[in-house]
Every structure is written in C-alpha cells, then in structure tokens.
Write a structure and sequence with these properties.
Chain B: Keywords: Hydrogen ion transport, Ion transport, Membrane, Transmembrane, Transmembrane helix, Transport. The complex is a heterodimer of chains A (873) and B (93). Chain A is α+β, with helices and mostly antiparallel strands and 873 residues long. In chain A, 63% of the residues lie in helices and 7% in strands. Chain A contains 26 helices and 12 strands. In chain A, strands 1, 2, 9, 10 and 11 form a 5-stranded antiparallel β-sheet that branches. In chain A, α18 runs antiparallel to α23. Chain A is flat, with a radius of gyration of 44 Å. The relative contact order of chain A is 0.10. Chain B has 93 residues and is mainly alpha-helical. Chain B has 2 domains: 59 residues; 32 residues, no CATH class. In chain B, α1 packs antiparallel against α2. The longest helix of chain B has 27 residues. Chain B is elongated. Classes of the chains: A alpha+beta (873), B mainly alpha (93). β12 of chain A pairs antiparallel with β1 of chain B, so a sheet runs across the interface.
C-alpha cells in the first residue's frame, strides 16, 4: 500500500466500456471510489449530453422524495436509518422506483388536498359557530337597551334637531348624561345615523341591516378605522375575540380571529361595508335575524362539525399510514436515487465512439489500485450480463496528475491541516506525517500545563471513544464539527500538553514536588529574620538537579522566577525552532533526490544547510556549552558572573565585533579556546553561501542552454536559408516547454526567481528563528494568566475561613473553573493552535513545500451521499 | 550518581524512539507508526534534556520571601529553631 509520505503514483487511463455494461461498471467504480473521471465533452453544455434525460428523471424523483421527507418531518414520524448502503439499482428498476414515488406523491397530494378542503370546511363551520354564539350575546344585550334608547332620543330629537343642527354638540352631552349605559361610540353613531337619514321618516328607517363575520385579529383596528371613515361613522360595529386559535388550512399555522357584527342602514352602506369586508379579507357568514333560526342553525352547525371531525380523523389516519410506510424506506430510496443520478452524471462525461456501441472514458487512477479497479470492472460486466470485457489502458500524458494521499481517520485531520495551506504537488514530500507529532508538540510547548492539558486530553479522549455514536448524530453545528473532526489532534495536543506541563512543573499554575526539590535552606535563623526576602546561593544551597522538569522551588520564588524561566524558555524555543527548520531543509533534500534534481542539491540544499547550521545551529550549540560549562560553584573563568550572554556573542559574531571581557577575573569573553577564529570561519562561510545560492543555479542553467543551442544550430546553418525549415525546427523546443515545465523560461526570469528565493531564505532564516520565540512568549503568557487567575480568584476563596469560607470556595471555585475552561483552555488553546499552525505553514513548510498540486477527487458514492447529493448540481 | 537521571531518561526515550519503531507491527501503517514514535521520542527527550541541563548548573538561585523560607525549612527537613534568635532580640529591646 502507499504511504502517507508521498502522494500516490497516479496514471491516466483510457477506459472502453460496452454501452450495456457501462452503467454497472460505473456503479462498481462508484462503490470503490478510486477513480477520477475527466470530462471529455467540456464544450457540450449540460442539456445536450447523452444521459440528460435520465439525470432529469432522477432530479424529479429526488424532488418527490424531498416532498415526502418534508411531509414526514411535518408529522414528526421518525425516519428509519438502518445505515445500510444499498447498491445502485439496475437502470430498469428506475421505472419501478419512479412509479412507486409517483404513486406515493399522488396519493399524498390527494390526501393533503382532501384534508385541506375538509379543514377549510371545518374552519368555516367553526367560525360560523363562533359567530352564532357571540352574536347571540350582542343581540341579547342590545335588543332591550337599544330600542329604549332610540325611542327616548327620537322624541327629543324631533323637536330640537330640525331647526338647530349646530346644537348637536350640546345635545350629545345631554344625551350622554342621560343614558350612561350606552358607550360613547355607539351613541355617536346613532347621532350620525339620524343626521344622515331624511329627518321626517326616521321611524321607518330605523330598521337596521347587519352583516356578521370573522376577521384576523391584527387587522381589526385598521378595519374599524376604515369602516368609520368610509361610512362617515354611520355604521355600528361590535366585536368579540375568539379565544381559541384557529388553524389556517393552507399552511397549518395557528391564527387568532375576532368575530364582528356591523349594523348599518340602507343599501348603499351595505355595499360599502361589504366592499370593505372584502378588502380586509374578512369572511362574512349568513346570520339569521330571528333568535329561533339562529338556534336552529347553531344546532345544524354542531352536528356538521362532529361529522367533519370523524372524516378528518380518518383522513389523517390514512395520511399517517402512508407516511409511516414511506418513512421506512425513505433513506434507502434517497441513496438509490442519488447513486443513479451520480452514475448518469458520470456517464455524461464519457465519449461515445463512432459505432455508438461503446463509451470511452478517461480517468486518473492510483497505480497500486489498478488490480482492484480491474476486478470491479469485471464484476460490473458480469452483473450486466455483457460478454465483452471492458478495457483499461494506461495512457502517456504530460499533464500533472492529481495528488492523492491515502489517509485514515487518524491521519485525515492532519492532512486537512496541510491541505488548508495548499495541496502538495504531485509526489512531493508530504509534511502531514511529521505534523502528526510536531504539531501537537509545538502546541504543547506553548500550552504547557498539566491541568489544562488533562482537560483537553479528556475531551479529546471522550470524542475518540464515543466516535461512532457521535459521528452517527451528524450535527449541523459547525463549531462542534470542527472539534469533532480534529478529535485526534485535540487528544494528542492534550497529551503533549500534559507532558510539557509536567516538565514545566505547572498544574493550574502550581508545582508538584514529586522528587524533592534540590534546593536547601542553609541560612540561620537570624539571617532569615533580618531580611524580608533572601536569594538562595546557587553555589551552596543547591544540592542536585531536579530529575524531571522544573524544580518546584521556582514556583514559590515570585521575585526572580520569570527571569530564570525566560532564559530557559527562550533557549528551548530557539533550539526547537532551529531543529525544526533544519528538519524542513532536510525534507527538501528528499524532494531533490526523488525528482533527480541533483543541481538543486548542490545549488540550494548544501548552501542552505551551511547557512542554517553555521549560524543558527551554532548558536544553539553555544547554549548547551553555556549550560554545561558555567556554574555558580565553579572557580572564576567559568563562574556565574563570567557566563557570556549568548545573544550578544551571536550579534558580535555576525558583526565581527570584538566581545568585551565581563570582568578582569574572567580573562576571556569566549567559552572555549579558538572560539573567535571558529566564529569568523563560520560567519564567512555562511556569507559565501549567499552568492552561491543566488548565482550558481542560473549560471549552470545558462551553461546548459548554451550547449543545447550550439548543437542544433550548426547543422541548421549548414542546410540553408529555408524559412519553412526554421519553422519546423522551432517546433520541438516549443513542445518541450509545454511538457517539461520551465523549459524555455527567460534567463532574466530565472535570475529574478532565484534572487527572490535566496533573499527569502536568507532573511527568512533570521526572521523565522526569531519567529519561534512565540513558543516562549505564549508559554509565558499562558503560565502568567493561569497564575493571575489563581491568585485573583481561587485564592480569595481558599483564604476565607469558617463556614462562610466553605460556601465562598464553592462559589468561587465555580467561577474559577468556568474561567479556566473558557479562557485558559478554549481561548488560549485556540491562540496556541493558530500560532502552531503558522509555525508549520510558514516556518517549516517554506523550507521544502511548494503545494502547487490539485487534489484527487475520485468518483465515490460515499462522498456524494455525504454531501447530500447537492454537490454536483 | 549524578548521571543516573540522564541515563534513565535517555534509556526510556530510546525505547520509545528506537526500539518500539523497530518492533512496530507490520501493516500498511507501519511507516506512520514508526515516524510518530521516533518523533515523539526525539521531541520529548530533547525537551526533558533542555529542562534538565538548564538547571544542572544554576547561575542564579531563587529569591524567596521570608515566610516561604521558613515554611520550606520546616517542610523540607532542616527545621530552624527561631526561639534562639528571637529571644536575644526581645531582650535587647
């Protein structure tokens, strides 16, 4: 099997398929998912392809299935997901499927239509019921008062009204006083009614007409206003709410409505009122005037509602049965239809040969899987009953094959991190296998805390152990999916953080004293009592080195803990950074060797290595020398105050400056004999590498070009002056340039390219080395933040005594725990993750990775089904 | 004696980074398993080594508060008898 270190070897193949066998073969290949088909008819649009009809039929089937799914979801019926994966059905089965879906859809639509009609009917009846009930109240309460009031008023009005209409207002007040029971609204209307009518014959015209109906509650105020304005206040409206919500049959929503009844006088107003009702979508219902009629009608309505209820129940039952039956198979059908559609889609990419008897396909195939693909094709042929076996021919091509990295569930997440930067060029060294460890490790250097690491590792472990049930849930939550996709990264990051946290001796910003600190208190009581703080003397109070990690004494030394840890953490950042970069350059060597690019080894790899090792790796060596050679307990040339600063030594080395002796007793600013000379040699050789990288490659290319040009030109010159001939001669180089990459690049371009490359590398190694200091910076920030959180929050709880203290610790611990998880684990973790990503993408991969490839996208049912089949539309 | 931790840890990580990759089970993922083990061994060993070496020859000592010193002295064995020193002071003043 292929490994993850390089992408798979691919080959372009031509596939001849018998027309009858094509469908079955493609179906088998889809199950296999190892073949990427190329579109052989790119200039034919989607509607003119051969199998466009079938694709359309599949679309139609899918639409029907989606309709069914929607209906099933609406009824809340659980869909059976057995997780089985049915094979793509034979093309002839498609008709059966179509018929089934057609039947189901029609049945469902009919049921729905019936149900809707019934519901509409039901709604009308209910509304009518409400109208009858509510209006009964209106009629009851108004009938008595109303006539009384009218009679009263009429006797008055006849005397005063006719002569002095301007006294209306007075009258109104008087009237109001007299009959307080009537609401102002109503009486106003009465006034106006009277005003409008011919004054002599009011008695006769007081015979009022009315309409009753229902209206959406939210429209009522507008409706009322409209009525008032349009009829100049000459109508009288009463309304009552229907408390229970009614179901709108068209979309099943609950709506709130109100019953209203409008009294008016005369036909003109009647038409006007009806128009307004229509405009506001109010439904009007006939309402008999006589109470006995109304009662009778109400009875009739009640019986009809009961009948309707039974019928509706039966309809619902039927619909439910149909849907339950469909829900059992729905997932299966979806898979089948999507597979069929995918197959025809793929067949559309193929070419028909002249005889129309066979289909020609071109596809990218991993060489290692040729055998499996042949087997699948044979199976497909057998299934279709065709006698002619399909032919799979390897083709020669100059095109760059796609990049295919065979991943499993563990390596996949890491490969995704790399692909997010850029898909590797074909057969280029893949950084993913190294990333599996270097990524969580560099993360952990920044995130080192045993406690926080444990939280993260447990979260990762939980996701890994519960992988199957969690994956089956298929959440839509994007953040969760990111976490779940990276569960193995999270687990490893957590585990490494626990290790680095243990080495940093940090657990929620406290230290463990597992092995016993190496420092001893040798002061006598008086010295201690005389000063508030004392520094232990490394020459006398230091017993032995703490075997694993930081000595716990540093955690309780708030005054110079940072100084000590900074020196240590900066050094390890640089040490790991330089080694990481050297590793990157070495990976580049494998690329040069694989691609037989010997020239690159001599013109790029060697000077790059020299530059990096002679300058930066030398600096890390100095760190180790300083650690071993200098000690507080040593006599003078190697004592604590003689230890030279590595940074200053390095700067002086590069600038050729003379280092100054720290004190007289130290004798020399150097760590070992001959260091000065060695440094000069190193710097000079490193500087020589710059022009070497800059010019060597272009010059060699130039030389080779000259040699190549000399040979063909000589015979050509001898032959003569033919213009056509020169044209013919120029063809082969043109071909070469297409095939062999940068064959005919301009010389100046090569120079510029190489210049950029060199400058990038030289400046890059300086800035990248400094960039690794982020390991120190983030680790420091993380440790400090954890400490501040402890001191400012949890300590307050721990220091409170008594019973209150117990409660306080309980509350404060909760707060501290939330902040620890939210800020220190989640946010700090995210920031450390991003910095690690940058260190890999920029600092590591820039040393060898070009990432100019394109991904292998095999025709696989699995990915099509996961994407919900929509990816291809 | 002083080199004991060095050999122990180098030994442990040598097992992780050298022995385990050799005995890694055969299979399609052997290459990846080996790569993972070697890198783990190398990274963890170097990380431990740097921490050990940084403290091997300390150039500065921890600066501690009076209280911390007293507690450390009590907890980590050489108890300091304060009564002797406090009394003369008390008498003196």
């Amino acid at each position: 099997m292929g490994s993850l270190f390089r992408s798979e070897e691919m080959t372009l193949c031509q596939l001849f398929l018998q027309s009858e066998a094509a469908y079955a073969c493609v179906s088998e290949l889809g199950e296999l998912g190892l073949v990427q088909f190329r579109d052989l008819n790119p200039d034919i649009n989607a509607f003119q392809r051969k199998f466009v009809n079938e694709v359309r039929r599949c679309d139609e089937m899918e639409r029907k299935l989606r309709y069914l799914e929607k209906e099933i979801k609406k009824d809340g019926i659980p869909m059976l997901d057995t997780g089985e994966n049915p094979e793509a059905p034979q093309p002839r089965e498609m008709i059966d499927l179509e018929a089934t879906f057609e039947k189901l859809e029609n049945e469902l639509r009919e049921v729905n239509q019936n149900a809707e009609a019934l519901k509409r009917n039901y709604l009308e009846l209910t509304e009518l019921k409400h109208i009858l009930r509510k209006t009964q109240v209106f009629f009851d309460e108004t009938a008595s008062e109303y006539h009384e009031i009218l009679a009263n008023r009429h006797s008055q009005l006849t005397t005063t009204f006719s002569s002095r209409p301007f006294k209306y207002e007075n009258l109104r007040v008087k009237f109001l006083n007299r009959c307080q029971m009537a609401d102002s609204h109503r009486e106003e209307e009465q006034l106006n009614l009277l005003e409008d009518g011919p004054r002599g014959q009011q008695q006769q015209n007081l015979k009022l007409g009315f309409v009753a109906g229902v209206i959406l509650r939210e429209r009522l105020p507008a409706f009322e206003r409209m009525l008032w304005r349009a009829c100049r206040g000459n109508v009288f409206l009463r309304q009552a709410m229907i408390e229970a919500p009614l179901e709108d049959p068209s979309n099943g929503d609950n709506v709130y409505k109100s019953v209203f009844i409008i009294f008016f006088q005369g036909d003109q107003l009647k038409t006007r009122v009806k128009k307004i009702c229509e405009g506001f979508r109010a439904t009007l219902y006939p309402c008999p005037e006589a109470p006995s009629d109304r009662r009778e009608m109400a009875m009739g309505v009640m019986t009809r509602i009961e009948d309707l209820n039974t019928v509706l129940g039966q309809t619902q039952d039927h619909r439910h049965r149909v849907l339950v039956a469909a829900a059992k198979n729905l997932k299966n059908w979806f898979i089948k239809v999507r597979k069929i559609k995918a197959i025809y889609h793929t067949l559309n990419l193929f070419n028909l040969d002249v005889t129309q008897k066979c289909l020609i396909a071109e596809c990218w195939v991993p060489i290692l899987d040729m055998e499996t693909i042949q087997m699948a094709l044979r199976r497909g042929t057998e299934r279709s009953g065709s006698s002619v076996p399909p032919i799979l021919n390897r083709m020669e091509t100059y095109e760059d094959p796609p990049t295919y990295n065979r991943t499993n569930k563990f390596t996949n997440a890491f490969q995704m991190l790399i692909n997010a930067y850029g898909v590797a060029s074909y057969r280029e060294m893949n950084p993913a296998p190294y990333t599996i460890i270097t990524f969580p490790f560099l993360f952990a250097v920044m995130f080192g805390d045993l406690g926080h690491g444990a939280i993260m590792a447990l979260f990762g472990l939980w996701m890994v152990l519960k992988e199957k049930p969690l994956a089956a849930k298929k959440s839509d939550n994007e953040i969760w999916n990111i976490f779940f996709g990276g569960r193995y990264i999270i687990l490893l990051m957590g585990l490494f953080s626990m290790y680095t946290g243990f080495i940093y001796n940090d657990i929620f910003s406290k230290s463990l004293n597992v092995f016993g600190s190496g420092w001893k208190i040798n002061y006598d009581a008086s010295t201690i009592m005389d000063s508030k703080a004392l520094q232990l003397d490394p020459a006398h109070d230091f017993g032995r080195t703490y075997p694993i990690g930081m000595d716990p004494v540093w955690q309780v030394a708030p005054m110079n803990k940072i100084i000590f840890q900074n020196a240590y953490k900066m050094k390890i950042s640089i040490i790991f950074g330089v080694i990481h970069m050297i590793f990157g350059v070495v990976v580049g060597l494998f690329n040069h060797r694989y691609f037989k690019n010997t020239m690159n080894i001599y013109t790029e790899f060697i000077p790059q290595m020299i530059f990096l090792i002679f300058l930066f790796f030398y600096m890390t060596t100095l760190m180790f020398i300083k650690w071993t050679k200098y000690s507080a307990s040593n006599p003078d040339p190697h004592s604590a105050h003689c230890a030279p600063s590595i940074l200053i030594t390095f700067i002086n080395m590069v600038l050729f400056k003379k280092s100054t002796v720290l004190t007289e007793a130290c004798e020399t600013p150097f760590m070992f004999a001959g260091q000065e000379f060695l440094q000069k040699v190193l710097v000079l050789s490193a500087f020589i590498c710059i022009p070497w990288m800059l010019f060597a490659k272009p010059f060699i290319i130039m030389q080779e070009r000259k040699k190549q040009q000399h040979q063909p030109i000589l015979p050509f010159n001898g032959e003569g002056q033919d213009v056509e001939n020169s044209g013919a001669q120029s063809v082969p180089p043109a071909d070469q340039s297409q095939t062999g990459g940068h064959g005919n690049e301009e010389m100046s371009e090569i120079f510029i390219h190489q210049g950029i490359h060199t400058i990038e590398y030289v400046l890059g190694s300086v800035s990248h080395t400094a960039s690794y200091l982020r390991l120190w910076a983030l680790s420091l920030a993380h440790a400090q933040l954890a400490e501040v959180l402890w001191n400012m929050v949890l300590q307050n709880g721990l220091k409170t005594g008594g019973a209150i203290g117990g409660v306080a610790v309980w509350a404060i611990f909760a707060f501290w725990a939330v902040l620890t998880v939210g800020i220190l684990v989640l946010m700090e973790g995210l920031s450390a993750f991003l910095h690690t990503l940058r260190l890999h993408w920029v600092e590591f991969q820039s040393k060898f990775y070009s990432g100019l490839g394109y991904a292998f996208q095999p025709f696989a049912f699995e990915s099509i089904l996961e994407g919900g089949g929509s990816s291809e539309d | 004696m002083t080199y004991l931790p060095f050999f122990v840890f180098t030994g442990i990580f040598a097992i992780v980074g050298i022995v385990l990759p050799i005995v890694a089970p055969k299979g399609p993922n052997r290459g990846i398993v080996q790569c993972v083990l070697i890198l783990t061994g190398a990274c963890c060993w170097l990380f431990w080594l740097c921490c050990y070496m940084a403290q091997m020859n300390p150039l500065i000592g921890p600066k501690l508060h009076q209280n911390t010193i007293l507690i450390m002295a009590r907890e980590w064995g050489n108890m300091i008898n304060l009564t002797e020193t406090i009394e003369p002071h008390a008498v003196g003043h």
